[in-house]
Amino acid sequence: MLDTAPGMMSLYTIWAARTGRVLRDAPANELTPDELIEFWADDLLEEPFGGTRVPAELPLPMHTTLLAVDVVGFGRRCPDTAAQRTVRREMYERLGRAFAATGLPWDACRREDRGDGALIVAPTGVDPVACLDRLARNLAVILHHRNRFADDGARLRLRVAVHHGYVERDAYGVFSPATSHLFRLLDAGEFKDALRTAGADLGLITSDTLYTQLFARAAPRGDGAVAPAGYRMIRVNCKEIRHAKAWLWLPSGLVTGLEDR
Length: 261
Hints:
The structure is a single chain. By secondary structure, this protein is an alpha+beta fold. The chain folds into 2 domains: 6-41, no CATH class; 56-249, Nucleotide cyclase, GGDEF domain (Alpha-Beta Plaits, 2-Layer Sandwich). It has 8 helices and 8 strands. Strands 1, 2, 3, 4, 5, 6, 7 and 8 form an 8-stranded mixed sheet that branches. A hairpin with a 3-residue loop joins strand 2 (110-113) and strand 3. The longest helix has 22 residues, at 81-102. The protein is globular and about 65 Å long. It starts with 5 loop residues before the first helix and ends in a 12-residue tail after the last strand.
């Protein structure tokens, strides 16, 4: 970058200090497009799925549906920031497409990044029924399309947890006992083991309270919005959750044969 104009050199220095990235010491015309894109990329301005650049400011506290998402094997398959940036962008893009296909308001959801995943807080008007197997089916199809030619190490695989409850927000983000329970479900070893055994691109777990309330309400409707037979009861243990009942959803044909835990 020794031949860079003074004004550009100042901008380069400021950006390098802000991001911690550097370009290799070479004339500007010898740098590759990939190197320049990697250096100048601004994660805060990216819109993975045509949504708002900042999380929606929802009227909290409120009772709503909560989703937590985690990229399976993120640390193993993303050894550097470039790989992490790519996988994170792909995760948000696929989630946005699945929400759109399900008719869920991606732009109106509050989204809090978790590095290797995200917390998604739906607006109060969202029917939690849509956030279960209807969303999961669309996301599974999208992931299958993305992974169909990828080797095992390059597959994008996701774990999703769904719960509901009251949440509050302070200067640091959203919190409540409901969000704590949500992430306990997401991190439960039994959930991880079930997805690993199935070898699926996607697994979804939901709390017993949400499952019981929704399927008790949905069953008489007969509208095909939910399919209780697609879920399997499992027992999970994670921190303060001891042998708690939860419900597992895996893509069609992969739930059969799993043992209750």
